[in-house]
Recover the amino acids of this structure.
């Protein structure tokens, strides 16, 4: 007898929760909580990116939404695809559907009719005790709904006479003779290539992944990152190619801070390569928009720095305005970083960058005692030489820009 199937509806990789500005590593949720809970309950666990098949991801996704014995939908990060797929499952099946979400999810509409089981994420990590608590809770929930499958779909709750749809013939999950690797495997191989600074290989692997999930903004962002980092065939060509990729993500109307942060980085480098003012203005606009949406230190500190850059080449009145805005942005960045130092700082994977950003922000507003204090902490948190080299180079450039403002 084959195992029962649990199909998991959720995003993959690191996603931004727009309502709180936090980044959540959904792969950590899946690997540490969801998959172990499903396995311990005796089911085979499948997430869409793990399916080995030929063709785009949509076909097996719809098949599993219909045939899976249990569906778990993680609605964290305000993921519209997860809400849509949960709705499909609710329309197809009256029971055995579980909704979960990170506890700070702001619901986009009234979901009082749907039980959503909360768990706590610490950003890019999850506390060990919380992993154990929610894994146990999820396992017990799966076992309970399989042994006593009460109606959990609001569709069948309110439309009492509705009969679940039945296919005219039995549905088979198609497995072709030579299926492609799973989306997950391509993404993992690509990330390994990025970790080795092999950006050309990473770009090729991400392009293959895009053929499986062609509407994924996450994969397009990764392609843009690998493209400009590759510097192939030369720096300028790679930057223009990355810029063209990011244009497909509608940067003028997007509220995705990851797209905006990447666009800011690409335009910043195009400004440095071409010295064309338009690229500097685009970079500032992108970082500013990302900063106000996400309220994060990365977009904020880059926004402040580029305001000083623009101020250094502007007339006196515009220069004063940019330098004032840069100082205000740094004050907000300091507030963000100080709050992070007080909240589960030791569990974070970006400890150095929080401290280095705080170091630069204090330097930028001329608080040299605090700058010296935080600099020592940042130096003690370094994991690679290039991290300090990057920070020292940025602060060196900032020192020159601030000197110009005093002339």
């Amino acid at each position: 007898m084959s195992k029962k199937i649990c199909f998991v509806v959720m995003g993959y990789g690191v996603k931004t929760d727009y309502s709180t500005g936090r980044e959540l590593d959904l792969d950590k949720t899946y690997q540490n909580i969801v998959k172990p809970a499903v396995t311990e309950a005796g089911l085979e666990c499948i997430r869409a990116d793990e399916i080995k098949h030929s063709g785009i991801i949509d076909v097996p996704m719809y098949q599993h939404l219909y045939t899976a014995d249990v569906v778990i939908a993680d609605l964290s990060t305000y993921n519209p695809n997860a809400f849509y797929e949960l709705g499909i499952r609710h329309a197809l099946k009256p029971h055995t559907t579980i909704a979960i979400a990170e506890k700070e999810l702001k619901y986009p509409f009234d979901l009082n009719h749907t039980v959503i089981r909360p768990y706590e994420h610490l950003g890019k990590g999850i506390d060990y005790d919380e992993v154990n608590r929610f894994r146990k809770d999820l396992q017990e929930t799966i076992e309970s709904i399989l042994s006593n499958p009460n109606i959990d779909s609001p569709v069948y709750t309110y439309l009492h006479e509705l009969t679940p749809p039945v296919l005219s013939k039995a549905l088979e999950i198609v497995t072709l003779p030579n299926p492609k690797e799973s989306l997950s495997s391509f993404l993992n191989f690509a990330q390994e290539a990025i970790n080795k600074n092999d950006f050309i290989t990473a770009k090729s692997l991400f392009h293959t992944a895009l053929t499986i999930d062609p509407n994924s903004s996450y994969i397009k962002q990764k392609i843009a990152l690998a493209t400009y980092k590759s510097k192939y065939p030369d720096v300028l060509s790679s930057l223009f190619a990355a810029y063209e990729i990011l244009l497909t993500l509608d940067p003028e109307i997007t509220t995705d801070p990851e797209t905006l942060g990447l666009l800011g980085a690409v335009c910043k480098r195009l400004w440095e390569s071409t010295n064309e003012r338009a690229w500097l203005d685009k970079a500032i606009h992108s970082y500013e928009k990302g900063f106000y949406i996400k309220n994060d230190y990365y977009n904020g500190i880059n926004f402040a720095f580029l305001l000083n850059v623009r101020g250094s080449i502007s007339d006196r009145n515009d220069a004063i305005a940019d330098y004032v805005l840069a100082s205000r942005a740094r004050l907000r960045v300091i507030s963000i970083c100080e709050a992070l130092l007080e909240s589960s700082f030791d569990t974070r994977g970006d400890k150095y960058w929080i401290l280095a950003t705080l170091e630069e922000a204090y330097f930028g507003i001329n608080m040299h005692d605090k700058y010296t204090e935080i600099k020592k902490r940042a130096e003690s948190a370094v994991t690679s030489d290039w991290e300090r080299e990057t920070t020292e180079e940025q602060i060196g450039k900032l020192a020159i820009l601030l000197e110009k403002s005093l002339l």
Residues 287 and 302 are 7 Å apart (CA to CA). Strands lie at 5-9, 14-17, 22-25, 44-47, 70-74, 97-102, 116-119.
